[in-house]
Design brief:
The chain is of the alpha/beta class and 263 residues long. The protein has helices at residues 2-9, 27-35, 84-99, 104-112, 141-157, 176-189, 203-211, 225-235, 253-261, and strands at 19-23, 40-45, 51-60, 63-70, 73-79, 122-125, 131-134, 162-167, 194-198, 219-222, 241-245. A six-stranded mixed β-sheet has the order 6-7-11-8-9-10, with helices on both faces.
Length: 263
């Protein structure tokens, strides 16, 4: 609610010619729309919106194709990055591009050239034939679930076990323990094969993950990245897919780097 309030403050300075673009699939953002009837909103989404994506197809671990419908026109788009959440990001970019009169081909070209920055859903080959999803730059509940969704897509498309290596989500206040526990349940619902946690808060992911069906023999709770690295080197097999993610302060990239260079 506080985030919604803060985002709403941005609209106070919008002039009468201004336009706001929102994801109509997000009920929280719709509350902002309801509170500002004088402002012109344009919407995008998968289930709802003026501009909608459908026929979303994960072609490979780093390529997503989808159709976009707007003004009774349908066009094919693709991204060279994984994740359904990035389809939403692309819809926002497409919406803005159309607003500024870019052609469809110009928008397609721009999106096809987009790549992620370091430590943001990087797909990297690791030691001993493993695949690493390095998303260690930062973490919050939404981005954690998005990264777990990408890990789940790998489970569907590739042989090998899926292992989530998750650190504390910091600065969560009173929502800290409940938010970590919710992630444990989410991992169980996605049938993730293994779980390693790092940090005093992340242990609640492990506790909830065990309750949600993850094999307790594949759940490990640690207080340091070094301990997690040693365990991963001990248990990882060829074709395993390892997601690494946590808040910036947890420095989870140390784990990724060790699994890449073997040190």
């Amino acid at each position: 609610e506080n985030i919604i309030k803060a985002k709403s403050e941005l609209l106070e300075g919008l002039d009468k010619e201004g336009v706001v673009f929102i994801n109509e699939d997000d009920s929280n953002l719709l509350k902002i729309k309801e509170n500002y009837p004088r402002i012109k909103f344009k919407t995008f989404g998968i289930n709802h919106g003026n501009i909608r994506a459908n026929k979303i197809n994960t072609i490979s671990h780093n390529r997503v194709a989808f159709e976009v419908e707007y003004n009774n026109i349908t066009n094919d788009f693709h991204l060279n990055i994984p994740g359904l959440h990035n389809v939403y990001n692309a819809l926002a970019a497409i919406s803005l591009g159309l607003e500024f009169n870019l052609t469809t081909d110009e928008i397609k070209t721009g999106l096809s050239k987009f790549t992620t920055s370091e430590m943001r859903l990087e797909i990297i080959d690791g030691i001993n034939g493993i695949t690493i999803i390095n998303d260690s730059y930062n973490a919050c509940p939404d981005s954690m679930r998005a990264a777990i969704d990408v890990l789940h897509e790998f489970k569907i498309r590739k042989k090998g076990r899926t292992i989530a290596v998750l650190g504390d989500m910091l600065e969560m206040g009173k929502w800290g323990i409940p938010s970590h526990r919710e992630l444990g349940k989410y991992l169980g619902d996605k049938k993730i094969d293994g779980l390693i946690t790092v940090g005093n808060k992340a242990k609640h992911i492990a506790i909830s993950g065990k309750e949600s069906g993850i094999d307790e023999k594949m759940i490990f709770i640690f207080n340091s990245n070094k301990e997690a690295i040693n365990k991963l080197k001990d248990i990882c097999n060829e074709n395993d897919i390892i997601l690494i993610k946590g808040s910036r302060g947890m420095k989870m990239e140390e784990i990724a780097h060790s699994l890449i260079n073997g040190r």
